[in-house]
Amino acid sequence: MRTAKGRKRFILLCVAPAVILFVIFMIIPTLNVFRISLFERGAYSPTETFVGFDNFNTLFKDEKFIVSMQNTILMIVMVTIFTFFFALMFAAILSREKIKGQNFFRIIFYIPNILSVVVIAGIFSAIYRPDNGMLNSVLSMLSGQQIQVLWKDQPMVIVSIIMAMVWQAIGYYMVMYMASMAAVPESIYESAGMDGAGRFRQFFQMTLPLIWTNIRTTLTFFIISTINMAFLFVRAMVAKGMSDVGLSFMYNQKDAGLFGYSMAAGVIIFLFSFLLSAAVNRVTRREVLEM
Amino acid sequence: MKRIIALALTCILCMSAFSGFAAASEGPLRVAALESGYGPEMWVEVTEAFTAATGIEVELTTDKFIEDIIGPAMQGGDFPDVIHLATGREKALTDQFIKDNLILDITDVLDRAVPGEGALVSEKIAGGFTETALTNPYDDGKTYLAPMFYSPCGLFYNAGLFEEKGWTIPATWDEMWALGETAKAEGYALFTYPTTGYFDTVIPTILYSVGGPEFFDKVTNYEEGVWDTPEAAKYMEILTKLASYTHASTPAQANDTDFTMNQQMILDDTALFLPCGTWIVDEMAEAPRVDGFQWGMCPVPEIAAGGTGYSYTWFEQAWIPSGAANQDAAKQFVAFLYSDVACDIFSASTAIQPVVGVAENMTGDNKMFFSIYDTGAKAAMGGFAAYESTAGLASVREVFMDPFNALVSGQTTADEWLADMRAANDQMRANLMQ
Question: For A62, which residue in chain B has the nearest alpha carbon?
Answer without folding.
Answer: B392
